[in-house]
């Protein structure tokens, strides 16, 4: 029988680990973007991708109140969706290939699904 992993910290959450990995991947990818995108597209996509992680960290400390927990999860989902929008701009501006877009967009779809499950099962996380 498989033993469930103990979650003591937000860093133990698979969704946090995946969101953090995506933020770092976006950071690396955007290093090669043209200079004219530095203060617009690059700043925006880095900020939104990092906000997914920071909202997950914040939500972990909001577990005392289910409504607040769910609200903060919604913030994380909004940031993930915003990142997907910026990824579309990256593709449209030809800064990334369609295969990379599909990979990143798919990973954000998975992250959104995980956050949605957390929201629907908030009672398992809240105390």
What keyword list fits this structure?
127 residues, de novo design (two linked rop proteins), 74% helix
In short:
This protein has helices at residues 14-30, 38-60, 66-92, 98-120, 122-125. By secondary structure, it is mainly α.
Written overview of the protein:
By secondary structure, the chain is mainly alpha-helical. It has one domain: 23S rRNA-intervening sequence (de novo design (two linked rop proteins), Up-down Bundle). The protein has five helices and no strands. Helix 2 runs antiparallel to helix 3 and helix 3 packs antiparallel against helix 4. It starts with 13 loop residues before the first helix and ends with a helix. The relative contact order is 0.15.
What is the helix fraction of residues, given as a range? over 70%
Regarding quaternary structure, what we see is: single chain
* Name of the CATH superfamily: 23S rRNA-intervening sequence
**Spatial shape:** elongated
Overall tally of domains: 1
- Run of helices and strands: HHHHH
Question: DSSP strand (E) fraction?
Answer: under 5%
Which CATH architecture?
A: Up-down Bundle
What's the level 1 CATH class? Mainly Alpha
């Amino acid at each position: 029988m498989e033993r469930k992993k103990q979650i003591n910290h937000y860093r133990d959450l698979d969704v946090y680990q995946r969101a953090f990995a995506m933020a770092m991947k976006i950071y690396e990818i955007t290093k090669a973007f043209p200079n004219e995108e530095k203060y617009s597209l690059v700043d925006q996509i880095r900020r939104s991708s990092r906000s997914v992680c920071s909202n997950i960290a914040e939500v972990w400390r909001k577990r005392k109140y289910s409504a607040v927990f769910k609200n903060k999860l919604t913030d994380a989902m909004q940031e993930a969706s915003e990142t997907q929008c910026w990824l579309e701009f990256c593709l449209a501006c030809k800064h990334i290939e369609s295969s990379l877009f599909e990979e990143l967009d798919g990973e954000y779809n998975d992250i959104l699904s995980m956050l949605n499950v957390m929201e629907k099962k908030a009672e398992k996380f809240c105390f």
